[in-house]
Amino acid sequence: MQAAIHTQYGAPETLTVGEAPIPSVGADQVVVRVFASPVTQGDRHVRAADFPGIGWLPGRLMMGLLRPKNRVPGGNFAGRVVEVGADVTRFAVGDDVFGACDSGAQAEFVAVKAEGAIAKMPAGVRYDEIADAPYGAGTAVTFLEKLAELGAGERVLILGASGGVGRAAVQIAKARGAEVTGVASAAKADLVRALGADHVLDYRAVDPTTGDRRYDVVFDTAGRIGFRQVRRVLARRGRFLTTRLSASILFWMLLTKLFGARRALFGLALPDAALVERVRALFEAGALRPVIDQRFPLTRIAQAHVRVESGAARGSVVITLAEPEPLRVAA
Ligand SMILES: NC(=O)c1ccc[n+]([C@@H]2O[C@H](COP(=O)([O-])OP(=O)(O)OC[C@H]3O[C@@H](n4cnc5c(N)ncnc54)[C@H](OP(=O)(O)O)[C@@H]3O)[C@@H](O)[C@H]2O)c1
User: Fold this and answer.
1) Is residue 260 domain-shared with residue 304, that is, in the same domain?
2) Number of C-alpha atoms within 13 angstroms, CB side, residue 273?
3) Is the peptide bond before 271 cis (omega within 30 degrees of 0)?
């Protein structure tokens, strides 16, 4: 099969496209014919071995110390089940599915555990529209629903509201009845507003951690601020959430767990079946709508990474395979 190939860490051009064996199905696995796989910031971190802060060592240990452990990249996919293992009951050949995996999704076929982070596609959604949902929406669910337990009427500040995680976070926070302030560049303010944000701030013009407004939840998807800075705009019992692992956040997590009403929380979104099912339910309830920036064929995977790295994307950057015939799923 055709696959993206990743044999050394580095710039986008280190990714090539070549032949790889079609994965064989294990007894507890399904093989999915991949029709769409996004290039996320997570994929960019793995490609470049750019694991920020104290994530450097765990990142290298997990992904490969000197070179990538997994030859075929790609952590998210949408496609159709073409083979099921002997013990699998959750899926059948022909099911349209989406999900997350450690690697291997940027290829024509991927094998994943049937009880893992995979679910049937919601009706009326295209493969390219749902492919990055385990990443973006899955992370937003983990932080806003599980960690913060965001409630109706609460005020939430979302930094990085125009990004892969932030776009989903804005929509999920609105669906939970929160009042949402999104922080993004001025060029993407319209996008954040269209996703439902009540207020939008330009991070180049305003420091959202100053001023009189207080927030019940501050979700820093962009990993730009620390707890010390954000404390002054956190309401009593306010929660600060960050996607970025640092020594500072670990310190504040411990301290705020022991003392004080305000909490600092780092989280790690680890997709499993329940999380992907939750994302599916949000799509089916109409709480999430996809935003696609650009589609690339697999042969242009390096250019897709350049697009992600540019910071200019106004939505998901998606690798599409086997275009265009199977792109629309019957409602
Ligand atoms: N901990 C976890 O489990 C987990 C899970 C998923 C992702 N992550 C991490 O979360 C981070 C964000 O991921 P993503 O996919 O959302 O990235 P992304 O799509 O690149 O979005 C980055 C966002 O940050 C904004 N931004 C840039 N500079 C900023 C600044 N100075 N102040 C405030 N906002 C700023 C961007 O705004 P403009 O584009 O408008 O300039 C954009 O909205 C990545 O580092 C990723 O690895 C962690």
Assistant:
1) no
2) 8
3) no
* 53: confidence class by pLDDT, cuts 50, 70, 90: confident
Check pocket membership of 315 for ligand 1, CB cut-off 6 A: no
Atom 26 in ligand 1: residue holding the nearest Cα: 160
The string of pLDDT tens digits covering residues 114-144 is: 999 999 999 999 999 999 999 999 999 999 9
Structural domain total, the chain: 2
Same domain, 64 and 139: no
Ligand 1 lined by 243 (C-beta under 6 Å):
yes
Q: Please name which of 97, 91, 116 lies closest in space to residue 272, comparing C-alpha atoms.
A: 116
Q: Which of 39, 41, 204, 242 has most ligand 1 atoms within 8 Å of CB, for mutation?
A: 41
Query: What is the SS3 assignment for 331?
Result: coil
| Locus of tokens 């920036």 | 293
Query: 51 lies in a domain?
Result: yes
DSSP label of 244:
-
Decide: 57 in ligand 1 pocket, CB within 6 A. Answer: no
- Does the pTM surpass 0.70? The reply is yes
Structure tokens at 168: 């989903």
**Has residue 326 got a pLDDT over 50?**
no
Amino acid present at 312: A
219 C-alpha to ligand 1 centroid (Å):
11
Tell me: do 108 and 143 sit in the same domain: no
Asked if residue 16 has pLDDT above 90, the reply is: yes
